[in-house]
Amino acid sequence: MPHTPIRFLLDYISPYAYLAWTRLPALAARHGRTVEPVPVLLAGLLNATGNIGPAEVAPKRVYIFKQTLRIAHAFNVPFAPPPAHPFNPLLALRVTAAVEDLGARSRLVSALYASAWGGGPGLETPETVGAAIQAAGLDAPALLAAAQTQAVKDRVRSNTEAALAAGAFGVPTYLADDELFFGVDSLEHLEQFLRGEDPLTPDALERWRTLPASASRR
């Protein structure tokens, strides 16, 4: 019986999601899995869960750059910040959602991430997004036009709503079977799960779920 794909919830605004993408396809392949990239709007996840983005916390914004640069060095992948951050990722998310074929979508994700975080010109204009589409071997005018249609806009919105329903609160998030993993630092835990060696037991999880709180900040 074939395994279901690992659903990779992504937003190009996140350097951690870029770094995760450089490792995830190979990780999945080691376990006979494919990856389904799913573009979601991080701002929508944050708003729905009452959270704020890491870059919105001034001291953390600087730390994020230092940490992601170090991770990129360890992963041996190109890394440079985009021209501005945070930036508006909607056009890049929408062109990604407009691609049905998973192989082509994966190529596009790689090209868009290279433009955002791999030393490219960013993703804030139709020109830079179009150049990334062309680099992926896809039809830039057709995808840029599709990104303006209501159907594709709704697809990004429904992806985000489905992510929230699955328990997602940020990116990168990986959904493997019925289990959710978050963050580039959980790739090892995801692989452990795929090997059938997850140390988490239903009893331990239930104890955490029913653990009472004895203090609150508010």
From TrEMBL:
<dbReference type="GO" id="GO:0018845">
    <property type="term" value="F:2-hydroxychromene-2-carboxylate isomerase activity"/>
</dbReference>
<dbReference type="GO" id="GO:0006749">
    <property type="term" value="P:glutathione metabolic process"/>
</dbReference>
<comment type="similarity">
    <text>Belongs to the GST superfamily. NadH family.</text>
</comment>
<dbReference type="GO" id="GO:0004364">
    <property type="term" value="F:glutathione transferase activity"/>
</dbReference>
<dbReference type="InterPro" id="IPR036249">
    <property type="entry name" value="Thioredoxin-like_sf"/>
</dbReference>
<dbReference type="Pfam" id="PF01323">
    <property type="entry name" value="DSBA"/>
</dbReference>
<protein>
    <recommendedName>
        <fullName>2-hydroxychromene-2-carboxylate isomerase</fullName>
        <ecNumber>5.99.1.4</ecNumber>
    </recommendedName>
</protein>
<dbReference type="InterPro" id="IPR001853">
    <property type="entry name" value="DSBA-like_thioredoxin_dom"/>
</dbReference>
<keyword id="KW-0413">Isomerase</keyword>
<dbReference type="InterPro" id="IPR051924">
    <property type="entry name" value="GST_Kappa/NadH"/>
</dbReference>
<dbReference type="GO" id="GO:0004602">
    <property type="term" value="F:glutathione peroxidase activity"/>
</dbReference>
<feature type="active site" description="Nucleophile">
    <location>
        <position position="14"/>
    </location>
</feature>
<dbReference type="InterPro" id="IPR014440">
    <property type="entry name" value="HCCAis_GSTk"/>
</dbReference>
<feature type="domain" description="DSBA-like thioredoxin">
    <location>
        <begin position="6"/>
        <end position="194"/>
    </location>
</feature>
